[in-house]
Amino acid sequence: MVSISEIREAAERIRGVATRTPLLRWDDTTWLKPESLQPVGAFKMRGAYNKVASLTDAERARGVVTYSSGNHAQAVARAARLLGAAAVICMPESAPRVKIDGVRRDGAEIVFTGNDSEERHRLALQLVQDRGLVMVEPYDDPAIIAGQGTCGLEIVDDLPNVTSVLVPVSGGGLSAGVATAVKAVAPSARLVGVEPELAADAKASLESGSLVSWTAEQTGRTMADGLRTNSLGPLPFEHLRRFMDEIVTVSEDGMADAMRQLAKLARLVVEPSGAAA
Description:
By secondary structure, the protein is of the alpha/beta class.
């Protein structure tokens, strides 16, 4: 299990690279944490940089590989460039063009594959074997969870009396890290995970007490491309079982409406995966 001390160490490691995003007041009781203001437009920079920076010089010299539908891909590409490592990214052919372009701008090599996240994972593992690259998992890794947990640490630092935190759930890196950090500092706070109705594998997993996997055809129905992971990672699952109070689902219309409201009232451009919460 990732500890609060590991999350605090990650916060020092990513200082000056990942943005310490503010809390923005939405109404009398609600605050927003705009991770869309991160350098790559998503929280993923936290975990990716923490992981790549944690590697030895020899490991970075081998180069890194990951698999992602977009945000983690961009974050690993950026972190690798900043730290002088080559990066190979396994991406689905359906990945948004803006995310593909972002990866290329940071100099990473892209290997396209199908839309099934397990297929991308297998390809990345093959590249580890064939080319000696170091894997940077999207969520099932202590350094990734610790890096994402810095988001939760900032929340409790800025709002010590927080009573509840809502966080999107996909593979579980962000939700596990945030839940771990918040519960360590504000144990009475309620942690609520949010995922699309059309990709609700995490809710099914927590309710059943064991990992549940959905097919790519099932999760591919949601507009939230960042929340289409087939299943929670085993390590995030253990954190969520311990620290997450509940997982709820949101409709496609609900996410679309949240995006419109955030753009109109908060002047924030947010993708569906972030608007879910």
